[in-house]
Amino acid sequence: MIAYIVRRLLHAVPILVGVNLITFALFFFVNSPDDMARIHLGVKRVTPEAIAKWKEDRGFNRPLFYNAAAAGADKVADTIFFRHSVRLFAGDFGRSEDGRDIRREIFQRMWPSVAIALPTFAVGILVYITFAMLLAFFRGTYLDAWGVVACVGMMSVSTLFYVIGGQYLVSKLWHLVPISGYDAGGLHALKFLALPVIVGVVSGVGSSTRLYRSFFLEEIGKDYVRTARAKGLSEPRVLFRHVLGNALIPILTGVVVVIPLLFVGSLIMESFFGIPGLGSYTIDAITSQDFFVVRAMVFLGAVLYIVGLILTDISYSLADPRVRLE
Amino acid sequence: MPFQLVFLWTDVLIYVLLAAVIGFGLYAARHEHLRAPWRLVARRPLAAAAAVVLAAYAAVGLLDSFHFHARLAGGDGRYSAEVRSLLDVLAAPLRARTEKTYSAPFATHAYTKETVEHPDGRVAREYPRLEHGGAHLEDPGGRAADIAARAALATLAGLGLWAVAVAGLVALRRRRGETPASVWRRFARGEDEIPWRTLLVTLGVVLVLAANAVGLSFYYHVFGTDQVGQDVFYRSLKSVRTGLVIGTLTTLVMLPFALLFGIAAGYFRGWVDNIIQYFYTTLNSIPWVLLVAASILSLQVYMANNPEAFNTTAERADMRLLFLCLIMGVTSWTGLCRLLRGETFKLREGDYVQAARALGASHGAIMARHLLPNVMHIVLITVVLDFSSLVLAEAVLSYVGVGVDPTMESWGNMINGARLEMAREPMVWWSLTAAFVFMFGLVLAANLFADAVRDAFDPRLRK
Predict the structure, then answer these.
(1) C-beta separation of B49 from B199 below 8 A
(2) Residue B316's domain spans which residues?
(3) Which of A178, B119, B135, B457 is the most buried (most CB within 10 A)?
(4) Does the pLDDT value for residue A43 go beyond 70?
């Protein structure tokens, strides 16, 4: 098991190098450091000295990939790509445009993101599985048919609608919770967290319920279920003991992989509800065209995704005894 | 010539797509194995209804895809710098009839108070009459009756159009020795293979709604006006093309790569497979919003530094739209590539592939003639299933600020521009509502249609 995880982590290295290459190509090839300097210093009336200083401050005054002027190993090492990649792997994301340390920012903003994303995720899965079980239990009836129609209807609605509608209904019309904001302190935080979590869960009901229902129905058609019924087990017992356990395996595939990504938060939720998490951090970086933060978030997202893939495989081997990690 | 044609990049791709769809339709009509699953789709009442709605959206989108520069008045042969589309010409009254600022749907008075000078010299602070909305009314109190009368007229016109369509259809489907009445009975009772009843009811609803919207929009702002006084109905119509382009071109521009790489990985295995797998795992491991954000950011910088590459704002916006399609295509491409690779893995061991190899067919010929046709159903299912999520994604991306160009009409831009309007008092709800309603109609129809296509083409579901 440990050998497997180590090997998977080693596999991750070339992928992360590739991710780096892609962002590097986007930010340095399509636009040279000079272009970026001009954007940040203002396109018009910018002196060459100012550009040179901007590049100097950020270490961009080196060649991109190959430094012909340097000696020995420095030919490759003393380049923008190498220096920045190595730093990213060491977890040093550099500084954002306003001069703050990106890594510290990430560690601070991670927790509000988790505070929203984790409850949304956990409550969501419980709700979706419950609804899907309900539809599977009443399969073939009008309840099932209309339930599926409702699911298709709900998944055809934009997430933005759920957010705006939820804010309007709950906060503006009923005055139950504040429209947006965040408070780190204990119980007080609950009133800020309630609405984003509810909206997050509701916006996923349509697609997830329908997907899980199809997983359940696929299992229900299998032989072992018929055997269980033939033994004389009651329908709820068949569903909960036999079908649920087996249908969890396909559900796991889609679910475990996103757990690490919960740290990155949701862009829409955080910006609408004013949560000072990583999602809104990313949006701010996008609107202020802060390449360093966007690049750091891309790298972080890729790392977490790969961790998620490894976790998925491990959870497989735990849930399904037929799967062995080798 | 009174106009000078403009071919934007996305226009050309839309024409290509249209030609491909028509070509495929003609080809499929002559081959039973292709026709059979489509017949299954056509038999589903919901799919038929969805197809009618999709066709209505497609018609609007196509009208908006023929662009030109109009000739300037004055006779010296110069053309306007503005790029217009056929839809703009048809909806010219809508576009031209702008107010000062917000006004509610069917309103006759403005949303904000203004200082108005009356003819008798009295100056008062009040809600002024709109310049265009309900301007034909002498007395705004008679608005309800006027709307009802015009709606009734429009409904009649819509029903008239519908009757013409039905008559044409009856004539078309008449068998030898059948009276039109019996054809109609066949339709009404659902005795035909295709669910005409649902189809015709949907067509009727669409036509009546369209007739009402068009008829009333000459006299009122059906969906109100936005902050700068533009008609929201017109903006929603213009957004249809953006939504359709994102939904269709995104998967299509990357399709050749997905096909080539997916089939090659599954067919050659070994090191080819390893490289392709590495390639798409890398792309896949970047969260897609961030990949799109990073790409659009660098495009913005590129455009800011190279303004000379784009002649008009329309071209610039179009380039960004195409680029957005490309980069979103990269993210959806990986999923399709993986599916194709898996399917080819299975197919390459099939007897017919072995036979072709034994007969000395080249790798290229085997992939193109034997493997490609057998994975096309996966491509089709992916394309239709992705459509609705792409349309929804556009709204989210535009909201985040990395979607289509801010000057381009899109539902995402409408929502983005209107999200603070809910806080106004009285609330400005119409822009948001219009964007959501139009988007919901398209996405729901696409979802229902995609389900039918998947059920008909997926061999695992066909029992």
Answers:
(1) yes
(2) 233-462
(3) B457
(4) no
